[in-house]
Amino acid sequence: MSTDTYTPVEDTGFGKKAAGPVGWLDDRLGLAGVAKKNLRKVFPEHWSFMLGEIALWSFVVLLLTGVFLTFWFQPSMSEVVYDGSYAPFRGLEMSQAYASTLHISFDIRGGLLMRQIHHWAAALFVGAMLAHMLRIFFTGAYRKPREINWLIGVGLLALGMVEGFAGYSLPDDLLSGTGLRFVDGLIRSIPLVGSYLEFFIFGGEFPGEEIIPRLYMAHILLIPALLLGLIAAHMLLLVYHKHTQWPGAGRTNDNVVGYPMLPVYAAKAGGFFFVVFGFTALMGALVQINPVWAYGPYNPSEVTAGSQPDWYMGFSEGLVRIMPNWESTFLGHTWSWNVFIPGVGGLGLLFTVLALWPFVERWVTGDQREHHLLERPRNAPTRTGLGVAGMTFYGVGWAAGGNDIIATQFHLSINALTHIFRIGIFLFPVIAFIITRRICIGLQRADQNKILHGYETGVIERSPDGSYAERHAPLPVTEQYRLTAHDRLPALEAPAETDENGVALPHGRVAKVRHRVRSFYYKGAIDKPTLAEVEHADEHLAEIEGHPVHLGEDFQGVSETGIPKSH
């Protein structure tokens, strides 16, 4: 369209009519300046950044399907006689909560589909948050100035797990009631105040008559409001700090290379919402989850055989299952360490370590700078090793939560499995840490070798003496930059114990401890080549006689095996 035929929006009929209301709002809210500044905000492009969006959009799916379910769910523990469509339960006494869940599943058009979409979206929400946090951890994206956003993420993960537990407890079926019984045991194990807390939360002795209505209000009102507030704060800080990006040509700590929010990123994010919604709808339609009619109504005297919680709560149950039977009597009370330490202490320890890690790492490294470039996991071998060790610890607890299912399905001794998990909860993370750190150091050596000796071209040459050798070609400058766009290792000098007068310096012991931890943190890491080493390597590769190796404009770097990706 030529410029002489273009009509500005403000000069059109619609623009003139909308100018008054829009101007009125802008005079009072000042939205024009904010929109002009942020609607062209640039976001980088990488598949790993989609993990956070999966969590965001699955939460939106949860809100939409949850609104549908609230129209028919009855959060009451009052006993009724079932007379609905599910013939095996007709004439059976059950709570109104369970009866309304059956009503939604069998009598409301699309009700079962919405229930299953809602449940799958909840599992996806927690899983995506966990995967997103792992990406943040392994790439160092939590470093200054994003520590507060990391804490918000930890809070979102904790609230998401509580929200999920509250949601699958609402139907009041035998499986969810067993889960509530487990939580009741955790509450009662708290020394001195456990029984008082149980009566306060359940409105009396378990199961009481208040827990379903209270969980319902927390599930649809209190926790979603907190989640919405934290998500809004999380997104605002993301925009304020600007998005992190992977190192590469033209990318620095002072810029962001990517696409603007409008129109490119908004269109892609909107399309991704429909992908997430479609995926959860497909799962809800084709894959059964939480068939409450198969469990029956909750009865405190019964337990579902092989009952398992949703996957994100299996870690806590696994720790309780493998804990030795430690109890003691003190001050006239029974102290159930076998439940309190793994159940309450295990989850508390997990989230405490997650919350404190950015500050602990900054104290160890002494790094006070701002970081907007991500760090490849191999370039922080100790952090990566600790992360994999934590995943292994979580995985062992998760597997231990299903020790009975593993034993019955594979015809193994449950006692033997319990002993293996008791040992493995301490041994396997250490093994995982050692292996992971060695792999990271090996990958660092491979990067160094590619920079200094070039990549393997696949061109085999035969020398006059009959030996064969493969020709190497220098990496492009952009690829060299990507492999070396990280900090050099700091000098690890032992702290001085005394001043120039021989007087002991204050905090000497703390400095010694910090030096030892710092030495362990950087132990074995391979430093990147210096500029002189790179220039010498380029000169050496340029002097090699024979047929030159042309990279071409379509060169996309090399794989971990040294082969160009375009091949």
From TrEMBL:
Biased composition (Basic and acidic residues): 544-553
Region described as Disordered: 544-567
Bilayer-spanning residue ranges: 47-73, 117-138, 150-170, 216-240, 269-289, 339-360, 380-400, 412-435
Catalytic activity: a quinol + 2 Fe(III)-[cytochrome c](out) = a quinone + 2 Fe(II)-[cytochrome c](out) + 2 H(+)(out)
An MF annotation (GO) of this entry: oxidoreductase activity
Membrane topology per record: Multi-pass membrane protein
EC number: 7.1.1.8
Residue ranges of domain Cytochrome b/b6 N-terminal region profile in the record: 21-247
Location in or out of the cell: Cell membrane
Catalytic EC class: translocase
GO biological process: respiratory electron transport chain
Keywords: Cell membrane, Electron transport, Heme, Iron, Membrane, Metal-binding, Respiratory chain, Translocase, Transmembrane, Transmembrane helix, Transport
One Pfam family hit: Cytochrom_B_N_2
Principal subcellular localisation of the protein: membrane
One GO cellular component term: plasma membrane
PANTHER family, A to Z: CYTOCHROME B (PTHR19271:SF16)
Protein name, UniProt field: Cytochrome bc1 complex cytochrome b subunit
